[in-house]
Design goal:
mainly alpha; 96 residues
């Protein structure tokens, strides 16, 4: 079982099998590009558990959306900055 004391290699192996387990990883590993990328390739919704910086990273958002289009819901910054004014009101997009 993954927890906040798990090593990067332990978390990498776990997220390859089930991206959801990213939620049990340490904050440091939820900000690790390699770990998060593996998690979202397996489970797009894992974007929710990624650091705020990675949720705002276009590469990560697009990868998550390739796995599950609904993962776009967790990419607040990307939504607000990449759609023309007036289409999406930032006030209606949830913050996490």
């Amino acid at each position: 079982m993954i927890n906040e004391k798990s090593t990067k290699s332990e978390v990498m192996e776990a997220v390859k099998q089930n991206g959801y387990v990213l939620c049990y990883a340490s904050e440091e590993l939820r900000n690790d590009r390699d770990v998060v990328l593996e998690a979202i390739k397996q489970y797009g919704y894992a974007l929710y558990y990624a650091s705020e910086a990675l949720r705002a990273d276009r590469e990560f958002v697009l990868e998550a959306v390739k796995q599950n289009g609904l993962a776009l819901y967790y990419a607040r910054f990307w939504l607000v900055t990449n759609f023309p004014c007036g289409i999406i009101d930032p006030a209606i997009i949830p913050t996490f």
